[in-house]
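Worked example 3 (structure in, sequence out).
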């Protein structure tokens, strides 16, 4: 469609006409001159359509996650489960189970990618928590409370402002702690859920043959994976809202 629009662009038509005229001026036959104009017009339209083609946005790179951290260990297990799922899928004999498992591969990889982002956010949250000394802030709050009880009017406002500043930091620490706890819980749930899915596929592959196909059990595989995927996505969205990121 874009190429067609470029063919009728007035500047392209003008360039083609000029090229044909130049060819005629050097005494080329009429059909050859027209051919030159057509070639120039087509070439110009092709180059213009390609140069104006919108570029697809690049996917954001996945964050680095320390494999030794809690989130890194759960992510490693999720990746291993996804690898096991792919290996089993490739080994299944053609049939309803193989078709269903094969169609689930993309969702499994999508789920692991989301878990990777959650693990990265958990790492970032953990680093942020390391910059806030909650124990020291709690002690500071206790001291300010005691001072406020005996403060005179000329310093009470300053002490209250100091108390508010300390409380704000403690509130941030509480939100970060809650977010990290939720992230780690979902990473654990997602990784174990994928491992459970792999175990279920292994079980079905052992008991399913062409003569005995449990269609309900096969359908439940998709439902199980969708539940895992939905939980991971909802956690990512909820964490983004709570942390404003």
């Amino acid at each position: 469609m874009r190429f067609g629009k470029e063919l009728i662009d007035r500047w392209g038509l003008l360039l083609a006409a000029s090229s044909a005229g130049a060819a005629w001026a050097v005494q080329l036959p009429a059909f050859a001159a027209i051919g030159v104009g057509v070639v120039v017009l087509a070439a110009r339209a092709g180059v213009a359509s390609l140069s104006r083609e919108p570029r697809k946005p690049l996917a954001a790179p996945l964050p680095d996650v320390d494999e030794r951290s809690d989130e890194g260990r759960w992510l490693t297990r999720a990746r291993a489960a996804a690898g096991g799922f792919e290996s089993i899928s490739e080994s299944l004999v053609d049939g309803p189970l193989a078709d269903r498992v094969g169609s689930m591969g993309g969702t499994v990889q999508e789920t692991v990618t989301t878990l990777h982002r959650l693990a990265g956010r958990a790492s970032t949250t953990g680093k942020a928590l390391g910059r806030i000394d909650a124990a020291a802030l709690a002690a500071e709050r206790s001291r300010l409370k005691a001072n406020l009880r005996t403060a005179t009017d000329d310093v009470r406002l300053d002490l209250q402002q100091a108390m508010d500043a300390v409380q704000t930091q403690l509130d941030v620490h509480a939100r970060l702690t809650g977010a990290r706890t939720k992230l780690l819980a979902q990473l654990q749930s997602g990784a174990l859920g994928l491992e459970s899915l792999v175990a279920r596929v292994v079980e079905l592959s052992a008991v399913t043959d062409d003569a005995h196909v449990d269609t309900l059990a096969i359908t439940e595989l998709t439902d199980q994976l969708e539940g895992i995927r939905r939980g991971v996505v909802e956690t990512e969205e909820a964490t983004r809202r709570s942390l404003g990121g």
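Notes: The longest helix spans residues 153-207. The chain has a mean pLDDT of 81.
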